[in-house]
């Protein structure tokens, strides 16, 4: 699994929140000498009746596509003038959001998706899922969630929890790379409950040795708690961290439908960028079976 950030995909809906995430993506691309792709997606809405699938509001969709094309064209011209050393492209998709994102990830070999988030989720978003959470869970590569309140675009203090062992060496390599690009310091936080303390502590000590050998400046602390998300959030505030590097692999460990999982807890209690590491070379979601747009099936006679 490579840990360099060669290609960044920024999703935008042209709102102020997305513009802030774009600024973050531009800063990361400048430091890592990455190619930046700006994606806007327009969802289709279909009616299925006896005659087959029909586009709902075709004229409206056509107007939206034209306006989006014009906006993306002007955005690309402006960004290339402001950042002449960066390779910047824009893509317009007329698709379901996650399918469109994963097609670009596959076609363009994207290493990181940057997405704006409002932060705390209300009750409805917890039930049906916020757009940023949909991108986080559905994208086939690493995701950086950028809160709309974020106004710092460098990562001088990097919080790196050691809480699961999946792809840990890759996460540490990535963290060191980010620290080097930002002239930053790593705050290593070993965190475990009683059940996993032996293996997590061993991994934590091994990571400390790795950081010492790499001459990377770091601080370290080990804590035991059953509330890992809350502890990490509080630690990030106490340390005034600029970013948290997290492993995505334990997303499927749900407590229940109404009790928040780790990632919803961390999103709801943290107001700094969250980098979720995903191994894009693992089994990916099927693109061929994904539905395009939204289907509304209507009853028909007979």
Automatic annotation (TrEMBL):
Highest taxon above the source species: Bacteria
InterPro entries: Rossmann-like_a/b/a_fold, Universal_stress_UspA, UspA
SUPFAM superfamilies hit by this protein: Adenine nucleotide alpha hydrolases-like
A Pfam family of this chain: Usp
Domain UspA per the UniProt entry, residue ranges: 6-147
Family: Belongs to the universal stress protein A family.
PANTHER family xrefs: STRESS RESPONSE PROTEIN NHAX (PTHR46268), UNIVERSAL STRESS PROTEIN UP12 (PTHR46268:SF6)
Protein name in the entry: UspA domain-containing protein
